[in-house]
Amino acid sequence: MELDQIYNPVQEDLKKVRETLKSVSHVDFNWLAEQIHHVVRETGKGIRPALTLLSGRSYEYDLTSLLPMAVSVELMHTATLVHDDAIDKSSTRRGQATINSIWGDEIAILLGDYLFAKAGEFVADTQTPRVIKLFSQTLGTISSGEIVQFRAAYNPDQTREDYFHRIYGKTASLFSLATQSGAILGKASEEDVDIMKEYGDSLGIAFQIVDDILDFTSTKEKLGKPVGSDLMQGTLTLPAMFLMERHPDDNPIRKHFETRDNKYVTQAIEMVLDSSIVKDCYEVARGYCDRACRNLKKLPKTTSRQSLLDLADYIIRQGT
Amino acid sequence: MELDQIYNPVQEDLKKVRETLKSVSHVDFNWLAEQIHHVVRETGKGIRPALTLLSGRSYEYDLTSLLPMAVSVELMHTATLVHDDAIDKSSTRRGQATINSIWGDEIAILLGDYLFAKAGEFVADTQTPRVIKLFSQTLGTISSGEIVQFRAAYNPDQTREDYFHRIYGKTASLFSLATQSGAILGKASEEDVDIMKEYGDSLGIAFQIVDDILDFTSTKEKLGKPVGSDLMQGTLTLPAMFLMERHPDDNPIRKHFETRDNKYVTQAIEMVLDSSIVKDCYEVARGYCDRACRNLKKLPKTTSRQSLLDLADYIIRQGT
After folding, report:
1. What does pTM read for this prediction?
2. CB-based contact (8 Å) between B83 and chain A?
3. Which of A3, A291, A292, B178 is deepest in the core (most CB within 10 A)?
4. Given a cut of 90, is residue A68 above it in pLDDT?
């Protein structure tokens, strides 16, 4: 099943989300409009806003609050990417030149701040202090998570616990905001909000594991950035950890972290692909998808519930 | 009259603001705590949170919302300073080493984001969507204003209108948030909220003009950064504009912007000090202070109203 079909129960409203995102670039200054347009025109798969709408769809579906929430979640994601690219000195994202590569780090910092502000305006439009607080807490989790990641760069001695903590911060926390806020704004019971939180938490972890696998198995064209980017930036992901565990004494990752020589990245990728590591990582991701879905059956049996189940299935099929 | 006396009606509550700010650094990671502590331990004059409390003091003074609002305003200010210093590559602020100079630009970006998030959490605690929205709009105004300033750097052909627009964005908008939010949270009438907005807008402009004067007239010790920093960073302020207007054909500022040679900054400072420009700029600032205060007499006659009047007077006396 493809994303279009999965998104079906909220397809029309996702179009409104995209239109609203584009409207953010309607500002007085032409060059600022150009910079905003550069980052909001291509929203990727739109999984985060879809999660908000699909989560809300099972309850009181009030677009006056769900639409700004979905827009807000995507804008926060976009803002963090703009800052991440400046921090990582990345030159391409989704196959396009990054803000920092075109206009410099200074504009990337300020444009990211501007997008956080816009995200804040949209979340304020929900008129719901509880999701507004959750929104801010999530931004705190993401940015402190990024600080952890930055400080852990090129450190080969990290535990799996470190890894899961890190990817919860950088990815799962926002998935969790997306699903929880949908349920809260739909006036779901506290029990259901908890189920949606569990779904968002675990789906986000699974999504990031698969993303980390694809950094080894995919192509530059599909990724929109070079294969092996994580290792080149000194980020230790699950496949890399598996490789280090299996070759504790002599492995190319430790050598890469010591020398920063990219020939060791190529070697690490080859070793991962020649082993059962990819399969094993998908197993771990599948475990998180199962966990995401295990309590969904307690929710009202709606087409949107089915979409959430299908989305978990879709994520785990990426790259396989 | 000194600040301590002016702050008198809210002195005890300002202590609570400072304590709450310090508590933001109580986080699990020691090094993150160290970074946060570095920026929240010294809050400068605390004018912004004082404005929130003094504005609220004339109405229903409910600390459960005014305290988080005051903390939020100061945290937003701190976050923008952390990002500004990274953008301007400043090495000192308030006489201390900046975050970017100690831990690098990457940490400065992420720590600023983290502080924005914390500011967002506190403003959410007001449980008042109207001030939450105003908070986000203000952050948008500040960051787009900073983008304007960055793009205008080393451009000698700016109008006074450009200048006032720029300093509204970078300074007055936050003063305005501080005073308006105090009135709104105090359940003031719309007319009174407007008066507080006018006060914040104009006081903020006056404050920034005086700040820009001090960059010419003060000392490195008092400023906590080198004299002439604005010009060195290519920022055209009111005294500089006056100098250019008076010497349109041959002036050191245009030469500095062309050559980036700091000897022209020294020359510009000398020329400003040898002229009536400082006096004339104070006149302009005084005009804004008068405007800030002109409608305050319509407000309830409280000790906090008197403090707002005294604060305008205090600001205009800085450096004279």
Report:
1. 0.94
2. yes
3. B178
4. yes
